[in-house]
Amino acid sequence: MTKQTNELISPLSGLRRLIESNQMEAPSGDFLNDKSYVWSPHNKIVNVTPGPAFGSELVSQFSSNQTRGMRGPGVADFFTTVREEYAKLVDMQEGGKALFFTGSGTAATEAAAGALQTPDEVNSDKPVILTLEIGWFSMAMGNCVENLGRGVIRLKGELGGDLPLDQCREMLANDTEGNIKMVMAPQNETGAGVTTNPKKLRDLLDELKHPALLVIDGISSIASMPCSMTEMGIDMLVGCSQKGMMGTPGIGMITLSPKAVQKIRESAQQMEEAGVKKGQHYLNLSKMIEAMETNGLHIETPGNYAQFAVALDSLAIEGIERVCERHKDCSEIFRSAVQAAGFELVAKDSSIASNAVTAIKAPEGYGEKKIMEVLSIMYFKHAVEAAAIPGYPDMGWRLCATGGIQPQHALMASIAFLKSAEEAGLPIDSDKGISAASKTYAEVAQYHRPLPGLDMYGR
Question: pTM, whole model, 2 decimals?
Answer without folding.
Answer: 0.91
